[in-house]
Specification:
It contains eight helices and twelve strands. It has about 260 residues and is of the alpha/beta class. Strand 6, helix 4 and strand 7 form a beta-alpha-beta unit. Helix 4 packs parallel to helix 5 and helix 4 runs parallel beside helix 8.
Length: about 260
C-alpha cells in the first residue's frame, strides 16, 4: 500500500505546477528563482514582489522553520514537478519561486562612497552569479551590466549568486562606455582589470566613489571600455598560472582596493 503524503501545514496548499508548452513563457515579466538561498533571501526581501512559490514538503517545512510566516503560501508539490519546470540539471532543493525583478538605482542616487562593479560582456551565468555573491560579501553598492551580452538575473545566475541578488542591485545600461563616462563625470575612479596592464593592483590608490571594470575571460576588456578607465591594473601573480576565473579576480580586486579607498 502506498504511503500517504502528510497533510499540509497551515498557510500551505497543495497543487501541481502547470508546465507551459514553452518553458520560456514563465520568464515573461517575471524572473525564476530556485534553490534554498535564492528563494529564502527573496522571501526575506520586502522589496521583492513575489507571485508563485512551489515547494516540496521538506522545502516548505524548512522555510517555515527558518523564516516563519511567509508572504505567499507555497503550493506543495513533489520534487519531480519542480524538476519538470527547471530542468534535470537544476539543483532546486525543493524550492521554486516566480518573482518580479528588482529595480536598480539611478546613478544620481548612488552614495558618495559607492563601490560598483562594471561587467564588460561577461556572459556566463555561473561567473556572473559568483561575482554577485562576491559583491554581496564585500558590500558592493551595485553591479553595472549591459542589456545585451549579459545573462538575465534568473535561474542559473541567481542560483550561483546564492541569494546575493537581494543585496546587490543590477544597473542595466545600454552602452557600458557611455555609462563609464557618466560615472567619471560624477567623480568615480574607474579601475579596469587587465592581466597585461603595467600597474600592479597594489600600486593603485583609488578614491571614492569607485567602479571596478571586469572583462570576459579570454577577451578581456574591449578597447573602448579601456579608454573609459582612469587606470588599468593587473593582479601580480608569482606562480606558474598567470590568470584566474573572473569571479576570483573580482574577489581579489575588491579585497585589495575597497579597504584603501
Amino acid at each position: 500500500m502506498a504511503k500517504k503524503r502528510g497533510a499540509p501545514r497551515p498557510g500551505m496548499r497543495r497543487g501541481g505546477p502547470k508546465r507551459p508548452d514553452n518553458p520560456r513563457e514563465i520568464h515573461e515579466g517575471r524572473m525564476v528563482l530556485y534553490g534554498w538561498h535564492p528563494v529564502a533571501e527573496a522571501l526575506r526581501n520586502p522589496d521583492r514582489a513575489v507571485h508563485r512559490l512551489l515547494a516540496t514538503e521538506n522545502g516548505a517545512a524548512r522555510l517555515a522553520d527558518e523564516i516563519g510566516e511567509l508572504r505567499i503560501a507555497p503550493e506543495i508539490v513533489r520534487p519531480g514537478e519542480i524538476t519538470a519546470i527547471v530542468g534535470p540539471d537544476a539543483v532546486h532543493q525543493g524550492l521554486y519561486l516566480e518573482a518580479e525583478a528588482l529595480a536598480g538605482p539611478d546613478f544620481d542616487a548612488l552614495p558618495a562612497d559607492a563601490v560598483l562593479l562594471a561587467l564588460d560582456q561577461i556572459t556566463d551565468p555561473h561567473n556572473v552569479g559568483a561575482i554577485v555573491r562576491t559583491a554581496a560579501a564585500f558590500g558592493v553598492t551595485a553591479i553595472v551590466t549591459t542589456a545585451r551580452h549579459s545573462p538575465a538575473a534568473t535561474g542559473v545566475m541567481a542560483k550561483s549568486a546564492s541569494g546575493g541578488l537581494e543585496h546587490v542591485p543590477l544597473i542595466i545600461v545600454r552602452n557600458l562606455a557611455a555609462a563609464l563616462i557618466q560615472l567619471g563625470e560624477r567623480g568615480f575612479t574607474r579601475v579596469g582589470l587587465d592581466s597585461e596592464a603595467a600597474t600592479p593592483l597594489e600600486e593603485v590608490a583609488p578614491k571614492a566613489p569607485l567602479v571596478i571594470v571586469l572583462g570576459a575571460e579570454g577577451k578581456g576588456l574591449r578597447q573602448r571600455t579601456r579608454e573609459c578607465c582612469d587606470v588599468m591594473a593587473k593582479i601580480a601573480f608569482t606562480g606558474a598560472i598567470q590568470s584566474l576565473n573572473v569571479s576570483n579576480a573580482a574577489a581579489i580586486t575588491l579585497y585589495a582596493l575597497v579597504p584603501r579607498r
